[in-house]
Queue: 2 jobs
Job 1
Amino acid sequence: MLSLLSIVMMTLLTLGISAVSAQEIEQEQAKVTQHAQNELIDLFFAAARTGNNEVIKEFLEHGFPVDVQNQQGFTALMMATYYGHQNTVTTLLEHGANRCVRDQKGHTALMGAIVKAEWLIAKQLKKVDCDVQAKQTGLLTIEEFAKVFGQLDQLKKLDR
């Protein structure tokens, strides 16, 4: 009887250790997967930041999500806009980039264009009105933002 009890205890301990090991392996695999995803996002954003349109196209043609956000809530559209890469902005918009996505500070790509005085890009981005969401959530509208930066007159010229 004692040996049967010993066998049962050893089996339970072994199963318990196996379950713990399997759980640890799953956690480690999740970390590796997350790390790989972060590296891809970093590469996508680097391409947007530097205007490497060919790399952007490769990512998007292979199904990479156009509106993926980094830790600050930035999108590739925001990065390409901020750094003045109109061709990349056009490519991202052609692949369905959402102009109305806001970063953690509540800013859109158009707001980045205003800050950097990228008026050709701003005109392209202004074709969609994102202010309805802003009014509902208490965030700055595009006009309010432009006024803060002393660019309201320039923004109004885009409508002409």
Job 2
Amino acid sequence: MGFCIAHEAVADALRKVQIPFGVSSIAQAAGVASLDPVVEAEAFARCELLVGERNRVLAGLRTAGFAPSESEANFIWLRLGERTADFAVACEAVGLAVRPFVGEGVRVSIGLPEANDRFLATAVTWLGSRA
């Protein structure tokens, strides 16, 4: 999120290539609010929690025998190939939503510790049932 102060001709050129509806007014308000030191501290604390949880989930998956890709995002990628749909069904059966890309793998969003614990338990059980 950002803004531009420019000569009118430059601003007109930028408008021609900008993404329509790139940042909503709600997102802009959130961005402005995040400049408040208290809100900023909360945002950093949430980021730290997310990074810690992502690292914990990655380590748990590796320990179980999966080979997740490295991640710097709020999600991880599990390459499962032809087993992708089966894994997604197993997750759905216990109320977990993953984003399957059939024949390739699943994208798993990192959530709160309790949800991540449920995901890890489901993944370990699923992998064990395939052994």
